[in-house]
Amino acid sequence: EDMCRITPDMIDNLANKSFPPCMRHLNDTLRTTHHLKYNGRLVYGLFLKAAGLNLEDALFFWRSHFLQNMDVDTFDKRYSYGIRYNYGKEGKKTDFSPYGCLKIIMSNVAPGDSHGCPFKHTDAIILRQRLAAYKVSNQTIEEIMELVNKRHYQIACQRYWEAIHGVPIDAGINHPNQFFEESHKFLNG
Ligand code: SF4
């Protein structure tokens, strides 16, 4: 299933070019605050794992961000367990699957949380600003907001995919990793 391997140095670039808005936002939050809350770490961690980031690189990636706020001991004590857990190396040793769109759309998102589906959970004004910052055209933003109003979140996400790649896509979007894989296929042939 691993169609590619990704490494920490590739992540920021991939987030902008190939990650869905939910994961792009988690990456931006991590980059600007050097922290994510529990659910954000879980959802983004499992996405990155399925995208091809191995455990060693995941520990490096999270550590490099979190160490801007804390020392190594605190990181190791509080956070490395959760990362190893995502990879089935702790606790029940389950090989956890990444969350699909429905699970993300249905999840509880409190103020200050960064996980969730932006089309469902993000305030309309902020969502517009974010899409504009992602260089989505005004016309497409209007189209997306109309879909959002009708609660067609995954179709809105499909429009976003088409906007950043400049081509239509046949498949609907049902999983953040599928969004990424379609992008990878398109960009790398
Ligand atoms: Fe992420 Fe799915 Fe929402 Fe797109 S529709 S932003 S992939 S949860």
Main attributes of the structure:
single chain; 189 residues; mainly alpha; globular; binds iron/sulfur cluster
Could you explain the architecture of this structure?
This protein is an all-alpha fold and 189 residues long. It folds into 2 domains: 8-86, no CATH class; 101-188, no CATH class. Helix content is 62%, strand content 0%. The protein has 12 helices and no strands. It has helices spanning 11-18, 21-33, 38-51, 55-66, 72-78, 80-86, 101-105, 118-121, 124-133, 138-149, 153-165, 176-188. The longest helix is centred in the N-terminal third of the chain and has 14 residues, at 38-51. The protein starts with 10 loop residues before the first helix and ends with a helix. The model has no long low-confidence stretch (mean pLDDT 94). The protein binds iron/sulfur cluster. Residues 20-22, 101, 104-105, 117-119, 153-154, 157, 173, 176, 179 line the site of iron/sulfur cluster (SF4).
SSE blueprint and pairings:
Layout: H1 11-18, H2 21-33, H3 38-51, H4 55-66, H5 72-78, H6 80-86, H7 101-105, H8 118-121, H9 124-133, H10 138-149, H11 153-165, H12 176-188
Helix pairs in contact: 1-2, 10-11
Bound molecules: iron/sulfur cluster (SF4).
